[in-house]
Design brief:
Helices cover 35% and strands 20% of the residues. By secondary structure, the chain is of the alpha/beta class. Helix 15 packs across helix 16.
Length: 1060
């Protein structure tokens, strides 16, 4: 059936900021869909709040709105753009929930808008757990024993009826938020409250637990003619009870018989048919009893899911693209497979290789949280590997994690000396490190059946891993060793090492097990005798990607990699991407001219470089990961594009950087270098408190701390002593000890340079006080409070430094302004976290321009021969960070020098107040939904600083609530306030006024982070209920401006194509 020609314009709803459970895989999906539909001639309107995405680039749609994803903003955009249809199935749970809210409010009906991909009724049945259960049982698909509840009391009654253990599943959620295993009545109340808080419909399904069963997922596509295909079958290594996003997963399915798989396949297709999913992709999850093979359907997602990106990368089948085209009327037989260029999309992909995904966690950033894994997702990223066998693929995935592990045979120091009982507990308990505990048990020659019993992991996987430990390298061919997961780090013999490398070949991901010729060079390495493709003699450049998402190195760097590749292609270079992240646009099969899906360790990267012999290697775009390879790339004789190894060392080596700044008359805080604990203590004593401790060669402020006294220093040292290899900052180089500048304004500068001329792309002012990591801060472009004289000095010193360093390409500099004096904090000769934001707002494609400068082109050439630097804007843009506090309920929401944010949103407006209001709204703080009240709780030190602010709020008509001590102090200055009790006092208390929506702002100046203080409870509750929390005068003044502009925000809206 041909496409629907009655539809002229389509609104695509994005997924918003990167959060745990909904990450950059939706940028990949949305970008693919927007590109496909635009190519079909539809006018594409796109709305998303995340500036660090490829999908919000102006070229991806005809009208792109980087606006809050709320009902009010969507309704306004619909009024402006009048789309014929809405596609809500590509923006995760956020888009689906918004579409349902708009439909229930008759917005679609009133505007004659068609819902594409899935009807509102189908979404309701799939997302409402009870309706889904009834629909499945009606057609004979077995489900778990369960009942729906809408109150705590109902939950207690149902729990008694079903019996423990129980699983709680809220409706309309993402990433398992609010789900939980309940072992006894003691835990029921608290976990039910969490579940109800997570569900926007206040409905929770209580079902029997299948903890320990095997878990499977099928990615299914269906068209309106009833054709259906299983794109990919995915098996979880970890059993039911661990969220699939936190589990190691394998594709294709390894442990089902063909009969079992075919039965599951038939049920998945019947599920879609029953729910009424007319077209597009869906994810269907099953649980299988390992004892008797009983099968239960768990859930289905009527949208492109997190696993869809993994399935697409695992098979080469572009699920999101085809889902979008099916939604506008095509069927699977009409769509051509891009990989082969000849077979139709109705051909199910076939894998002749094994894919392994391992999640990446950042628990060290949340020390108050137990790292036991459960049904609520907690991973921040993932890696994917491709190889001939499960064990080889598992080794490559472990290497891709960038945690210092070389493969399955790597001895883990955390477990080597553990007692038998302790190791058994580690194998039994699902934690990120469990796979390494299992490897230690196998290394000790433990009985495999016992390990399977302890872990509930299928014995087939364990037997395959054991084979790697049952061979000797002397008597085993290297081809077999490779298939068993051995690496050259596991071998002593130089000849064996060389043989292992010589047997490495590159195979194509072709979707059809080599039955048809592949048109797209999407490659992975494995053992073999011949390559599947040839290298060219073109002028070519390798871009090294950023690896798995993690806090501090996320989607922003993938954005930069994609723009770098686009610049190469637009300027006639052959672009080659190396990366290991399945969630991203950079690893889409048609982003670069050639894609190597490989770990970003030197062994794999050097092999690609040796094979391709590139003219240049770009290491500036992928964050810290490529920079760590710089020395080896240089020593191997390859040309590093742009800034040299000397430039990197000059910025990372504190002595060199200090001398450089002194030569350029640039002020720096007093600093020392410490290579061990004794030197650290000595350095602190010389500088005096407070000090800022910063590791070298890390990103995201890893292990960075502000230390105020001896006690805090002692605590920091104890944390270092207990850290594993990846967590100890001394392993990455010396620790930097800086004088901590208080009462400063921090500034980011993003620029590009050809070594002679400099182009300053943006100067961003931070809103939060000194000591908050730049990735967690609210950044304002252009600066809003710094005077022109200081801005001129910032620009002058930036240009000076870039020229002195001989930067060729990108440079990010961080400054601090204290009492009119400018200090430099650090400089990074690579892409920064803020560059996508700056590029998006100003319209200057600085990554593309910077890529050409790296390759030797002049700034003058870029300005004359490209349109990369033609942009400008008069708008105010504000970037606000998004935090994963809901996933880590034991953590204090206080911010510090170590980054905690997973993503960001953008507020853009004609003035500061409007832009900040939008940024708050996009971050989930809806100012206009609360009453005009402010709660003030101040430390003694800060009370004098806030008197004027309190007066201002009072004059604006805010009702002021305060704690007893703060209220008494304000009273002495003739400011009246309502005194509220402590958290555990009788109402009204500091907590009840927040719960009852009596305040829209909390001003809280904490003394320290502690779970047991009232401040901790106030900050946590404010986050959970969408109340703004500020801790400085600057933030409180800014909120006042945002509040005063709330009536104007919906009228101050333009597509980004018109902004710059």
């Amino acid at each position: 059936m041909p496409k629907n020609k009655e539809i002229k314009s389509i609104l695509i709803i994005g997924s918003g900021p990167i959060v745990i459970g909904q990450a950059c895989e939706f940028d990949y999906s949305g970008s693919q869909a927007a590109k496909a539909l635009k190519n079909e001639g539809y006018r594409i309107i796109l709305v998303n709040s995340n500036p660090a995405t490829i999908m919000t680039d102006p070229k991806m749609a005809d009208a792109t709105y980087i606006e809050p994803l709320t009902f009010e903003f969507l309704k306004k955009i619909i009024e402006i753009e009048k789309p014929d249809a809405v596609l809500p199935t590509l923006g995760g749970q956020t888009a689906l929930n918004l579409a349902m809210e708009l439909d229930e409010s008759n917005i679609f009906a009133q505007n004659n808008i068609k819902l594409l991909g899935a009807s509102a009724k189908s979404i309701e049945v799939a997302e409402n757990r009870w309706k889904f259960k009834n629909a499945m049982e009606h057609v004979g698909i077995k489900t778990l024993k369960a009942e729906y509840v809408r109150s705590i009391q109902e939950g207690i009654n149902v729990s008694k009826k079903i019996g423990y253990p129980l699983m709680l599943r809220p409706s309309y959620i993402l990433g398992g938020g609010g789900t939980g295993l309940v072992q006894s009545e003691k835990d029921l109340n608290s976990k039910l409250k969490e579940a109800f808080n997570a569900s926007p419909t206040q409905e929770v399904l209580i079902e029997e637990s299948v903890y320990g069963w095997k878990e499977f997922e099928l990615e299914v596509m269906r068209d309106q003619d009833g054709n259906g295909v299983i794109v990919c079958g995915i098996e979880n290594f970890d059993p039911m009870g661990v969220h699939t996003g936190d589990s190691i997963t394998i594709a294709p399915i390894q442990t089902l018989s063909d009969k079992e798989y075919q039965e599951m396949r038939d049920e998945a297709l019947l599920c879609l048919d029953t729910i009424g999913i007319a077209t597009g992709g869906s994810n269907v999850q099953f649980a299988v009893n390992p004892v008797n093979g009983e099968r239960r359907i768990i859930e289905m997602n009527p949208r492109v899911s997190r696993s869809s990106a993994l399935a697409s990368k695992a098979t080469g089948f572009p699920i999101a693209k085809f889902a979008a085209l099916l939604a506008v009327g095509y069927n699977l037989t009409e769509l051509k497979n891009d990989i082969t260029g000849s077979t139709p999309a109705s051909f199910e992909p076939v894998q002749d290789y094994v894919v392994v995904k391992i999640p990446r966690f950042d628990f060290p950033k949340f020390p108050s949280t137990d790292d036991v894994l459960g049904t609520s997702m907690q991973s921040v990223g993932e890696v994917m590997s491709i190889a001939s066998t499960f064990t080889e693929s598992l080794t490559k995935a472990i290497r891709s994690l960038e945690i210092g592990k070389t493969g399955i045979r790597n001895i883990d120091n955390r477990f080597i000396n553990l007692s038998k009982a302790h190791l058994e507990e580690e194998i039994k308990t699902p934690r990120p490190r469990r796979i390494f505990a299992i490897l230690e048990g196998i290394r000790r020659n433990w009985d495999i059946e016992k390990i399977a019993y302890l872990s509930s992991i299928d014995i087939w996987f364990l037997n395959e891993i054991e084979k790697s430990f049952n061979v000797t390298p002397e008597s085993t061919p290297t081809s077999i060793l490779k298939m068993l997961g051995w690496t050259d780090e596991d071998l002593d013999s130089k000849d064996k090492k060389n043989s292992l490398k010589d047997n490495r070949v590159y195979k194509l991901v072709d979707t059809c097990s080599a039955e048809f010729e592949s048109k797209t060079p999407y490659l992975y390495s494995t053992n073999g005798s011949e390559d599947d493709d040839n290298t060219s003699n073109n002028k070519k450049v390798v871009v090294i990607g950023s690896g798995p998402n993690r806090i501090g190195q996320g989607i922003e760097f993938d954005y930069c990699c994609v723009h770098g590749v686009e610049s190469l292609k637009e300027n006639k270079y052959e672009s080659i991407m190396i990366n290991s992240n399945p969630e991203t646009v950079s690893t889409d099969y048609d982003t670069a001219d050639k894609l190597y899906f490989e770990p970003l360790s030197w062994d794999e990267v050097s092999s690609v470089l040796k094979r391709e012999q590139p003219d240049s290697v770009i290491i500036q775009l992928g964050g810290q990961t490529p920079l760590k390879l710089a020395k080896k790339i240089h020593e191997a004789g390859y040309n590093i594009a742009g800034s040299s190894l000397e430039v990197i060392d000059a910025t990372e080596d504190r002595n060199l950087f200090q001398k450089l700044c002194e030569s350029q008359d640039i002020n720096q805080p007093i600093s020392q270098i410490a290579s061990n604990e004794n030197e650290l203590i000595d350095s602190v004593n010389r500088i005096g408190y407070p000090v800022l401790l910063r590791p070298s060669y890390v990103l995201g402020g890893r292990a960075m701390r502000v230390v105020q006294n001896d006690t805090e220093l002692k605590n920091y040292l104890s944390i270092l002593a207990s850290a594993d290899d990846d967590g100890n900052p001394f392993n990455s180089g010396p620790l930097l000890v800086d004088q901590f500048l208080t009462d400063t304004v921090e500034v980011d500068v993003d620029l590009i340079s050809d070594g002679k001329e400099v182009f300053i792309a943006g100067v961003l002012e931070h809103l939060e006080p000194a000591g908050v990591h730049s990735g967690d801060s609210t950044a304002v472009l252009p600066p809003f409070s710094i005077n022109k004289k200081i801005i001129n000095e910032i620009e002058q010193k930036s240009i000076q430094l870039a020229k002195a360093l001989n930067v060729k390409g990108l440079l990010n500099i961080q400054f601090a302004v204290k009492e009119g004096t400018l200090y430099i904090l650090e400089a990074n000769p690579r892409a920064s976290r803020t560059m996508p934001f700056v590029a998006k707002v100003t319209g200057n494609q600085i990554i593309k321009a910077g890529t050409l400068l790296m390759l030797g082109h002049s700034l003058d050439f870029v300005k004359k021969e490209t349109d990369y630097l033609d942009g400008s804007t008069k708008k105010i843009a504000i970037k606000k960070a998004i935090f994963p506090w809901s996933r880590f309920p034991a953590e204090d929401t206080m911010l510090g020098p170590e980054m905690k944010a997973t993503g960001e949103v953008l507020g853009i407006g004609s003035n500061f107040g409007t832009a900040l209001n939008k940024a708050y709204a996009a971050a989930g703080v809806l100012i206009n939904k609360k009453q005009k009240g402010v709660f003030i709780s101040l430390s003694d030190k800060e009370k004098p600083n806030f008197v004027e602010i309190a007066k201002n709020y009072s004059e604006l008509g805010f009702k002021i609530f305060s704690t007893e001590g703060t209220g008494a102090y304000l009273g002495k200055h003739n400011i009246s306030s309502t005194i509220v009790g402590r958290a555990n006092d009788k109402s009204p208390t500091s907590l009840t006024i927040i719960q009852e929506n009596l305040v829209s702002l909390v001003i809280n100046t904490p003394t320290f982070a502690n779970e047991y203080t009232d401040g901790w409870k106030i900050r946590r509750l404010s986050h959970e209920t969408g109340v703004a929390v500020v801790s400085s005068v600057r933030e409180a003044q800014a909120f006042m401006k945002a509040f005063s502009e709330q009536e104007n925000t919906l009228d101050d809206m333009e597509a980004i194509q018109n902004v710059s």
